[in-house]
Amino acid sequence: MRHWKIAAAGEGGQGVQALAETLALAAYRAGLKSLYIPNFGIEQRGGVSLAFVQISPESIGSPKFLQADLVAALSPRALRRSEQYLGPETIILYDNSLIDAPQVSDQVVGLQSYDTIAPDAFAEKMSYRDKRPALEMPSRRLIAVAASDLARQRLHPRVFNMIILGAMVEITGAVTLEQVKDALEEKLERRFKKDPRLREHNFAALELGAAAVRKKAPAQA
């Protein structure tokens, strides 16, 4: 297994920290070296939230990295905030129910307007259908998953971040879906016992995300 450097970004309330922490916990419980660094800053509500995860079979030398192997972007503004971690070989996972496909370029350019999505963790997605042209990216490895639409149509809008997490698990192969489910059980045991449907929706969302990735290869420009 390789050393994975992962950056996840989304609006405050989209559950970026929850998915990153769950991934790192799953890797740790699987006997791997893992590191999770949240980046809230002053943007816990209404701004972009960043999370950094490293997973490796060997010791992790530095808590920081300059270039990610995988960037998961949950909103157009989050995609812009992630650009500094992109390189030609970086895999970009993005929610194409909210973000238009990035254009591949050797030069990253600006972004148009954006509407706030969610005010609190696991909140329902508000309508965002005016998708403007996204960034021009240096990477040619793009994977689109319509996480928000899938969650709204098939499960519940609040679990769309788990669809993204399932996609990340499928892309990296660092841990299994079962290991991630075990990590969720550990994190949300009380909530799952109180509402078994929450467990069902979260687990189904993980499976949906993984299946969505299996159906496609990274888009090549």
**For the largest beta sheet, what order do the strands appear in spatially?**
2-3-1-4-5-8
What do we call the CATH topology?
A: Pyruvate-ferredoxin Oxidoreductase, domain 3
Overall, the morphology is globular
**Which secondary-structure class do the elements indicate?**
alpha/beta
**Proportion of strand residues:** 15-25%
The total number of structural domains is 1
Q: Helical stretch count?
A: 7
Oligomeric state: single chain
Number of strands: 8
| CATH superfamily grouping | Pyruvate-ferredoxin oxidoreductase, PFOR, domain III
* CATH class type: Alpha Beta
State the helical fraction.
25-40%
What is the CA-based Rg, rounded? 16 Å
The average pLDDT is 82
What is the distance, rounded to the nearest whole angstrom, between the alpha carbons of the first and last residues? 28 Å
Largest sheet: 6 strands, mixed
Q: Which segments are poorly predicted (pLDDT under 50) over 5 or more consecutive residues?
A: 104-133
CATH hierarchy: architecture: 3-Layer(aba) Sandwich
Compressed to H and E, one letter per element, the order equals EHEEEHEEEEHHHHH
Features:
221 residues; alpha/beta; Pyruvate-ferredoxin Oxidoreductase, domain 3; six-stranded mixed β-sheet; two-stranded parallel sheet; globular
